[in-house]
Specification:
Keywords: DNA-binding, Transcription, Transcription regulation
Number of strands: 8
Domain IclR-ED: 67-249
CATH architecture of the largest domain: 2-Layer Sandwich
Strand order of the largest sheet: 5-4-3-8-7-6
Mean pLDDT: 87
Distance between the termini: 47 Å
Domain HTH iclR-type: 4-66
Pfam family, one: IclR_C
Strand content: 15-25%
Largest sheet: 6 strands, antiparallel
Protein name: DNA-binding IclR family transcriptional regulator
CATH topology of the largest domain: Beta-Lactamase
Number of helices: 9
């Protein structure tokens, strides 16, 4: 147990370096983490010996080491997001009787990682591994709604694409829709991807409050009147919140109006 404080300091160094634009001087690391300079140098030296940080002598700065990269790569190999989400998606399918998907942002696109559906249900174009324009999908918009305005602007310089003639056609329209989605806590698309189908999505967050993934329910438009959509959205939001808890995350602080 005597090693726990040292372990926490090492993890804090890794998180600080991971969130920095580049390597940092030891003095900046000590200041940011409120550590004594001497302890910081000893800690960095020990971490460098195990490959978790590396020293750039020409710049007198410290950055992440190869061991940190290997751990990140192993995380991706283990597929923890999918493993944590799959049982939640299955429970949501049982609850609502519709197709449920897990998507993540991949640049300006939504990438679908998982799909669960009831038996003998219609197949959708948004299958696992498929990418769709994020501004057209409920899952994409539910995540975009929690990104800084500058990041959204960088992702969508224009022109905007569409599949069915529906959806935002400009950055101004997209921002207006995202502001409404953020206030409501869920997103909806109605025929933007496939005519006759609608989707409702809610976002899950990581430990920094950053949007990590979105859970989406997709259904035939004619089978669910609009007055029932808020109740469906509540079930989706509950599942997204459960995934956030499994990820050790939390919702972000409220952003100023876009």
């Amino acid at each position: 147990m005597g090693q726990v404080p040292a372990a926490r300091r090492a993890l804090a160094v890794l998180r600080l370096l991971a969130g920095s634009a580049g390597p940092l001087p030891a003095s900046a690391i000590a200041r940011s983490l409120e550590l004594p300079r001497s302890s910081t140098y000893h800690l960095l030296t020990a971490m460098a010996e195990d490959g978790f940080v590396s020293y750039v002598p020409e710049e007198r700065r410290w950055g992440l080491g190869v061991a940190a990269f290997e751990i990140g790569s192993a995380y991706l190999r283990h597929g923890p997001l999918e493993r944590l989400a799959r049982p939640l998606l299955r429970r949501l399918v049982d609850r609502v009787g519709e197709i449920v998907q897990l998507g993540v942002l991949h640049g300006a696109e939504t990438l679908y990682l998982l799909k669960e559906q009831p038996p003998r249900h219609a197949t959708l174009v948004t299958d696992v591994g498929v990418r769709m324009p994020a501004q057209l999908t409920a899952s994409g918009r539910s995540m975009l709604a929690h990104l800084p305005a500058a990041q959204v602007r960088a992702l969508f310089p224009g022109p905007f694409v569409d599949r069915t003639g529906l959806g935002p056609a400009s950055l101004r329209e997209l921002r207006r829709e995202l502001a409404g989605d953020a206030r409501r806590g869920w997103s909806v698309e109605d025929g933007h991807i496939t005519a006759g189908f609608a989707s409702i999505a809610a976002c899950s967050f990581d430990h920094t409050g950053h949007p990590t993934a979105a859970i989406t329910v997709t259904f035939r438009r004619e089978s669910r009147p609009e007055e029932g959509w808020p109740a469906l959205a509540a079930a989706v939001r509950t599942t997204a919140a459960d995934l956030t808890a499994r990820l050790g995350g939390h919702p972000p602080a409220r952003r100023p109006s876009r």
